[in-house]
Amino acid sequence: MVGWFRNARLGMFLNLCIGGFFVLAAVVVVVSVNYNMRQQALVEAQSKARIILDRNLATHTYFSRIMKPSIFAWSEPFRSKDYFDHTWMSSTYAIREIEKFFKALNPSGYSFKDSAVDARSPENEADEYERVFFENLKAGKQPEMESNVRIIDGKPYLVVLKKGEVMEASCLRCHSRPENAPKGMTDYYGTERSFNRRDGELASIVSLRIPLAEAYAAANVFSLKLSVILMVVLICLFSIQFWLYRRFLLAPLGIMREKANEIATQDGHLGEELPRPFGREIRELTSTFNEMSVKLRYDRDHLEELVQKRTEALQESEMRYHSLFENMLEGFAYCKMIYDGDGHPVDFIYLDVNAAFERLTGLADVAGKKVTDAIPGVKESSPELFEIYGRVALTGNPEKFEIDFKPLGKHLSISVYSPEKDYFVAVFDDVTERKSYEDKLKHFAVHDQLTGLLNRRGLEEILSRTIAKAKRGGVSSLLYTDLDNFKDVNDTVGHSAGDDVLVILTDLLKAALRTEDIVFRLGGDEFAVLLDGIDGREALLAAERLRAAVEAYRFELKGQVFPLSLSIGVVRIDGALALGELLSEADTAMYKAKAQGKNRVVAT
Length: 604
Prior knowledge:
Strand content: 15-25%
């Protein structure tokens, strides 16, 4: 079925669709009209029902309130107590008999009935449907009027039920107790039914049936006629649109298709043009077809020239690429990744490299070789290289990174991307000198050039970590020192000799400390010592060792001996003080040592 739709002719498909839409629209119109006609028939039937019901209730009212009282009053002198004549004493009887005359005169199927529960005449006894309405109305559970469409004996009827007579005082003579009723009535109807009624009690309901079969049949006939008319109209419209489609759409497309087949199968028709038909869209399509035909003819006639130009352009592009490839300063390597059975990268093959690759790596003739053969030990020394190359070759996501490539003793900056899955291209440059310069800059940023010790910046970085560790329970100590009388050295024998003293002092401090302790030069003759993991008495003992070592050393410079000593401030690092507060406290302790006479240790 799907294949038929794909291969169906456009004209047939469009006409079937439009015809289907026409038929669907006609069905909707006919069904809608039929439905509305039936609804209109119901509205008219309900209107008639109200008129008939009200007319019969008016007859009841006339009997009960005018005619019966008048006749009772007139006949009182000569009418016996047991006299009964239902022809004028019972409005129900009169309505029932009038209904019989009406049916004889007008056999239309209309039916009117006074219905009651426990009625005297079986003809007035309510059926089950009427009984339910009567009981609900009597119990106050029902509106006084109800209408429904019911199927009775296979035919549709509008059935309308409405509240009827209510017991009045004039009615109780015949409906209270059997002994109070006229003997003529009990002889006619008996003493069992429709007695013991009360004033104001619901006596009956009225039931009206109006046949709907004729109205529905008329609606169906009209719908059939409308269907025929619509069918004729739709056939005419369909024929007109079918002709228009064929004349202005399908015919031009058919001509274009035939010409396209001729061009495709016979070279002699290439370049031919079609006349432009009516309609802007088809005319533009035809113009485009003609331009394509002419251009294809021109391209075919100049194909060899075009091929020659394209070949020259391709050769020129290849030469430019080769020149760029060979003369680029960065190394270039095109490789194929090799994976193990679990998909992990284990090796790669060099497929092509440029001259810069050989110059930067010192490797020659690597094309076609595995990297593990070209550079022995590379996998063990640089496993991250395989991980990155394998990831890029597998995912296609480019990456850029730097690596200390130990097998060649170089630091490389590498950009890698994947032209297709399992292949990658690495473009790299030797940045060893730049890396070395950066490392030196980083070293000089935290080290003192004269002594090689960490400087104030290095102290702040390490001290921040020590404070954080102290907050977790690792207590340490900080010594803040100043070389007493150092100014005399600079003023007497010069700054060069002073630098020598600072170098000697550095060696003395290192010799007197543990290997895990760190010495810092803060500037001038100020030094600091971080005693990792010790405080209290042990810290004071360490500070005293430093003071004693400097005091005992003979500083002889250019034939002169200088009495140099250390003033030391000791601060406990327990995490209670921030970095700035800790340095300020240590500096204060050191100046207290100087103020107390120098060459001493003061702890806070």
